[in-house]
Amino acid sequence: MVPTSYYLILAAMLFSIGIAAFLIKRNVITIFISIELMLNAVNLTFVAFAHMWHQVSGQIFVFFVMVVAAAEAAVGLAIIISIFRTRQTLNVDEIDLMKL
Amino acid sequence: MALPTPVIALLPEYVLTVAGVLIMLIEAVLKPGTSRKPLGWLAIAATVITGCIGWFQIRLGTLSAFSGSIQVDRFSIFFHLLIGAVVVATLLASLDYFEGDAASGVAGNAGEYYALVLFGAVGMMFMTCSTELLMVFIGLEISSISTYIMAGFRKGQASGSEASIKYFLLGSFATAFFLYGIALAFGATGSTSIAAIAAALGSSAPSHMAFLALAMMIVGLGFKVSAAPFHVWTPDVYQGAPAPVVGLMSTAPKAAAFAVLLRITFSGFPSMEHRWGMLLWLLAALSMTIGNLGALMQTDVKRMLAYSSIAHAGYLLVAFTAFPRDGIAAACFYTAAYAAMNVGAFAVVTQVGGYGEKLRTIEDYQGLATRRPVLAALLAFFLLSLIGIPFTGGFFGKFYVFAAALEADHVWLAVIGLINSGVACFYYLKLLASIYAKPEDEAAQDASSVVPAERIGVPAGIGLTLAAAATLMLGIFPGRVLHLANNAGKTLSPDSAQGIAGASPAAPQVSPIFSLKR
Predict the structure, then answer these.
(1) Is A27 near chain B, with CB under 8 Å?
(2) Which CATH number covers residue A13?
(3) How many CB contacts within 8 angstroms connect chain A with chain B?
(4) Structure ipTM
(5) What is the secondary structure of B492-513 as a DSSP string?
(6) Whole-prediction pTM value?
(7) Which residues from chain B sit within 8 angstroms of residue A54, using beta carbons?
(8) A100 in a structural domain
(9) Residue A99: inside a domain, yes or no?
(10) Fewer C-beta neighbours within 10 Å, C or N terminus of chain A?
(11) What is the domain extent for residue A73?
């Protein structure tokens, strides 16, 4: 049987990859995908811990995270469309009206 | 009337949700071009009713719902009332603002805005009254998603949608950290209920995983309250978002996030106080310094107020280091004072700028006193309160926070805070001097002719009066709110929590400083 720690390490790696991609990538959609990656790393952590503690509450939490992530995606994509309409670009380096 | 307890406990949230849904439905059938003001008044009425219910709930003691994951005690009611007051003031200030939407030819759908404000308020109220991290997370998301949309509510404005996307991306990033923190806390203790976490941690040796969990949650909440080093989004978002929305999101969601932070640190992780105390000490010192130094260099008024709000988050975090005695009461009082003066300041900015927000920079404010003397006087009053001049709420807020820090032997933090208050005078006074300076050059004369000196609308007038009255009252008679804040603190302090005594000596019921001042 695969020990719980393997899942936790995988989740931590996914979370770190998400952070790195969030900071490095320049396209808004890709940045958004990296946030989703971080959320799914959290989900994996929850499921692993739920298995470890033999408690179903961790798995229930995952459902809520998924629902909220879906709601966030709806709003986020709408905002991305509105920014594309006013700016004709999705590159975050060009979305800089308000730099000091 | 025999309503079951869970219903009574959640009645405020129910009222707001129903009102929000109603407004959304009516908005859909209204013809474009018709005035949306009645919808705004409906939202205001719902919020006032919510406040009355909250006032009534104080008498009922602690109510719980959803098998203990919601706990309506004095602590949560304090924040419910605060959030309600902020929402009412914001709605009043924005009634005329969004009518400008219809006047400018854009299809007006201000009704959606009123509904979003109410939904956001529901989320914030859930955040303050939940004792289960799952509910905290859902509340946080309800309030955040509403504010993401509100930040970009002026359609077709590039700066608005830019503010919205920045807020959205960094906000979701922070949420991921907060969630990872919850997951690790669940792993360390086997539960996501704050009381169970405290019980599990109190009985075992502190583990690294539990501390990592708390640190992650503090990072997530630090983003929401815009504490430095997590503040980078604040100036851009505040500058680009509509002014009344900024007035709301610089106060109410922050108050809710601070309430969550108080609950998590003081009643969830009291056994690790020495570790998170250090962390928050650092955040407080950094936020105060970076906020004030950043504000010195700004020319845009909203951007300057954004940096000032970072600094104020820092002052508030100072209160957290005063564990376990005066911290909670001082933090609650400061939140109230800060909310009153900041909502007021942004209501004035709303009035000055109008829907187009043409008057934005400090130079644009030059000669405001001659053009619109009442507004100028009000703005001056709010700025003085933000500085912390006596007879304003800001003074007592700062006084209690720093007194609490000194009580807890955090002398250096208090010194850093006081130096920062001195630095803050410069930029507030720069704006103040600009308001009362005579417009000399052509450009300023032009600016005054572009925007006719219109009168303040009745709703906005009521909102401004409320904010000013609250700021003044907190500065002259702080006793009543302080009493509420003390009660709120007592509910939350670890000594009265469910059987978990922190590593602290028993705190006296009312601490010496606070009883002296009353």
Answers:
(1) no
(2) 1.10.287.3510
(3) 122
(4) 0.96
(5) HSTTTSSS---SSPPPPSS-HH
(6) 0.91
(7) none
(8) no
(9) no
(10) N
(11) 4-94
Question: Which residue, among B509, B514, B511, B484, has the nearest Cα to B496 in the 3D structure?
Answer: B509
Residue A11 covered by a domain: yes
The number of domains in chain A is 1
CB B186 to CB A82 under 8 A? no
Phi-psi region of B464 (alpha: psi -120 to 50; beta: other; left: phi over 0): alpha
Mutation target to probe the B interface, by most B beta carbons within 10 A, among A60, A83, A85 is A83
Instruction: Provide the 10 A C-beta neighbour count for residue B362.
Output: 17
Give the chain B residue whose CA is nearest to the CA of A96. B162
Record: contact A32-B176, CB cut-off 8 A: no
Question: Encoding tokens for residue B263?
Answer: 């609950």
Query: What Å distances lie between residue A13 and A25, A59, A61, B258, B281, CA to CA?
Result: 18, 20, 21, 30, 30
Question: Is residue A49, in this structure, part of any structural domain at all?
Answer: yes
A94 to chain B, minimum CA–CA distance in Å?
10
